[in-house]
Write the structure tokens for this entry.
Amino acid sequence: MLARCGDLNALFTKTYEDNASGKLSDERFMMLSKRYDDEQLALKKKVSALQAEIDEEEKHKRTAASFLRTVRRYTDIQELTPTILNEFVEKIVVHQAQGVGKGRSQQLDIYYNFIGKLDMPEVACLPQSVTVDTRQGVAVEYITRKAG
């Protein structure tokens, strides 16, 4: 595309010279120069759009690399400290609570540094309840439900 832009400049210069020397009529010159201008404008827009895509991809690569560096520093997290939380989480958006009592739910959106909000796929099938033995002779039952 960049080569074609250069070719169009050369063609326009040649067309101008042909017009100035009388080899090309003014009408023909105007038609050709308009066609070259239109093509060059379209090419410049396309080059600009492609450059924006390249820049965006480079930005994603840099942010992904930064995220991976941070993750590698904390491969064995034993305790979630404010420092670790600040390195991983950009912001948390808390939505209005829905429902009342045991049916009450509240949506939280977590935006991570470097990668933004992760939209997690819904779990296809959850068990009705999960029982966890917390200590000998004591079991706690958690009733599962779909978040919404």
